[in-house]
Amino acid sequence: MSDLPTVRPKHSRSTSITTSKKTTSHQRKPSLNVQQQQQQQQQQQQILQTPKPELKRHSSSRASLNIAPPTTSNLPRFVNSIILRVHSFLNPSGPLLPHSKHGNAFGGTAKPSLLSKLAQSRFIRFAALFYVIFSVFLSLNHTWKYLTSSPNSNNSPIRLQQTDAALDEQFNDDWVPQRTYDQDDTYSLMNQMTHGLKMSKLFSKSYYDAAKNIQPFWKKASNVPEKDEVSIITTANADTWEDLKRLTIYWEGPISAIVHIEEDDESTVEKIKQEYENTPELYRNVDLHLAQIPGEKLSVLFPRNAERNLARLLAQTDYIMDLPHGVIPATDLRRTLESNKERIDSLLLAGDLLALPTFNFKNRKATRDDVPYDKSQLILKLSEDKMVLDDKHWKENEGPTDLERWMDAEFLYAVEKYEFHYEPVIIESKTIQPWCSERFLDSRAACIFSSYLQGNEIWVLPDDFMVQMPLEVDSEVTDFDNVVENRIYAKFYWEQCVHHARQLDALGLWKSPRSQHIRNQCSRVIQNWGKGLIGKPE
Fold it and tell me: Which residue ranges have biased composition labelled Polar residues (predicted)?
């Protein structure tokens, strides 16, 4: 054999089969292509000779046996498509390019907005999907109930008759309306509240343990007063109990009194109980409300102003007269009120106040026999310098009552020189007047000041007056408490000016004569706080 390498003829690697006669000049390539071509032709002939089934001859019923039912394959496909859609909704696809490249490809980076971020949030999409599903099921539920319920089930004549019979039985002539918080129950939750909770809510600035020990109508008078009478409201304790007994001699009308006793002083409580039951003037006209307060002295646990409000709340008449202890009506005030009933009722129902000047003895040893019983006797004692006008916070014979004018007066006159410390004995409506501010230990001036700022007049009775008997005990309010009270009252003055100015403005009365009092008393305050409300009334 020769060592020279054998040179093989090059042939085309094309896989195409050609039958052109031009390719017969090549030796190796045509031979391979011809063999492959022959084999393929034989296979095609065999396939063509194989008999095909004639599907057209089969009926539709036979064809259904060879093809799977569409329901068995479409149901999973439908479920899968739903799952796929939910998955794609909960997992939104982002852009194909990263954010930086996406921006470069489309002309610069664009920061996604907050709305687009919320739209792409998976939590937001889940909440939206849940809301849609819940709404659909809720709508289906209501629709189903509407379609399946009978139209006359609730309005049938038999059912209506049963309902009417039940209502007639429930709301008969003996039915008493009560507040209820349940449409199926007639009882009131107010009836189930503890007494301490009610009292604590009534007197929110008081100590809870003090408020819960209050016993309204601890002793109730046997006489039932007329609604248009005047009730005296007052307070008493172990030291001033005798003053209350003395008051019943000068006043034969109804009295609503708070008895302030130390919490553990049962002996005093029993003593007062026995005296009340054995004294006709007491058990006929006096309603006693027991307040057993921690401590024997007046304190912020349950201040005197709160006691005034309680006595006023429990009074059985439409009109009241606030009377400090030791003060007695010297004249026959009940006859004056009865003889001028129409005039006095019209004033009190309009919100005005009736004031009675209070006079004091200069001699602390004065007794009951020294009390003047009419105006002429009083003027004589004034001229003899045995008695003086006692307007608290003013000097003797001075104050807004205007002693000279009162001595000459024959008719009612309005107080013209009012000052916010003025606190005479007053007669007022039980329901119309504002309540006393309970932030003060003992301040009747605060009660009157609120009413005066509302535009109510203070009318002084010309022939009747009060007498302050000499006190055997010192004042219950200490010097330190007086300093605190005065500072609180200065703030209270500003507060009431702004409060009542806003009320009158809201009622549309700011430009009416009713605002004259507050303009005179609070001009400096409202100029600073009222933003130009001050002006002349129309």
Answer: 61-70
